[in-house]
Fold this sequence. Notes:
Elements (H helix, E strand, L loop, with lengths): L6 H13 L9 H4 L2 H21 L1 H11 L4 H30 L6 H19 L4 H29 L5 H29 L2 H21 L17 H8 L11 H6 L2 H32 L3 H29 L2 H20 L13 H15 L1 H4 L1 H16 L10 H30 L1 H22 L16
Helix pairs in contact: 3-7, 3-8, 3-9, 4-5, 5-7, 5-18, 6-7, 6-9, 7-18, 8-13, 10-17, 12-17, 12-18, 12-19, 13-15, 14-15, 14-19, 17-18, 18-19
GO molecular function, one term: transmembrane transporter activity
Keywords: Membrane, Transmembrane, Transmembrane helix, Transport
GO cellular component, one term: membrane
Amino acid sequence: MAWTLSPSSNHLLANNMNEVPETSLPIGCHWRSSKWFILSTVAIALFAETFLYGFLVPILGEMLHNRLHVQPSQTQELTSAVLALHGALAVVSAPVIGHFADKQRGYKTTLLLSLGWCIVGTCMVAGASSVPVLLLGRVLQGIAGSAVWIVGFATVADTIRPDHMGFAMSLMMSCANTGTISGPALAGLLLETTGYWITWSIPLLVLTIDFIARVCMIESPSRPPSTPHGSLTETASLLSSCEEQEIPRNGSFWRIMLCDGRVLTCLLIIISGTTVSTSFHATLPLYVEEKFGWSPSTTGLLFAGLVVPGVLIGPVAGWVRDRIGTQRPAVICSILQAIMLGLMGAAGSDIPWASAQTMGKPLYIASIVAIGTFRPFVSGIAPVELTTTAKAIQEKSPETFGPEGGMSRLFSMLDVAASFGMMIGPIIGGSLKEMVGYKYMSWTWSLLYLLLAALAMCFLGSDDTQETPCSEEGV
């Protein structure tokens, strides 16, 4: 499978290059402006952001005790504050970043500015000699990370054709999840075997590679791209279904998008997915230690079971979406996740066939791996659905979101939704576990996914893209 720029983008790029003498083109212009290099740059940026977020987790205790000399009674509170600061900043800064990014002619400047903030923030965190410096460094990292998610996905949306969007977005998410896994693992290993400053040299190396890629990248001159005439995609389907709706010219982006049932369903899917995932951080370690007697190393493998299948299955889930649409995979896998969450809650409980002495342990492990496997088919569809919806509105009324489109604001909504879920997940999960127990907490999440299945059935696109005629460029 190959990804292609839209014909209009290719035509404009070719015209621009023909008009400029070959000697005045930038060095390596062809490969630097290719879709593969642009996507690789975004993938590296997303990997670097998630890598840095997780890299601090195993080091933070060492920093607070030995470098900042924080009292043991304050360690837990300060640890939670440092980690939660990232999500809280994203909720506040994402709409602002999206608004101003959509005012720019291109995305490269915003990507470079965010990288500068990230480098300064990382140096402040690594060399922090006081708690305020550490918190300020995390503030800079959080703002920069939010910008990377927003502008990075907007760049992908403006580079890839709609009929390949699912695979591209899923591949980006797999790269981001790889950073989530490798960051804490590598930091813990290096801190034990080498030393503090050698450990911090790895993030700086990652940022250096990220800097080189972002400087070399040359954006496509077309923004926002349009769907080729005659191409029967989900966007075209949406346009036909919206013909009778009056879309206000230069209307409020937030009002138009947040009054759309499809958009609200996608945002709820993102909030629910991150809420359930992060609730495990507050509840899973204590539960498996109490019920099964598993050590922290085994707990770490359970968390890997939640993430690693998604890294491997993510591109497959995107390919499936490109072939049959988003509705059926989302509905089916939401129901399957609901079943697995119900079984996970039963494992280790007082139910005879699922107790810790019978089938509780293998049942719990199988449920965790199954949830990680099915999750990309649900949470991964939100970026694609939102992109399709926004492009349909822009094609119906091109000036609705302004001359530069609304992709950055679109993905700022996703960033806010994910960050909000990260904030409330541990709180709700921990509260439910304390009030009603782990079993009923899991069954509550199971009911939530059944609700998501119903909403996906009602609002998500059901077009079978397999019927879409493929041009030679898309083969």
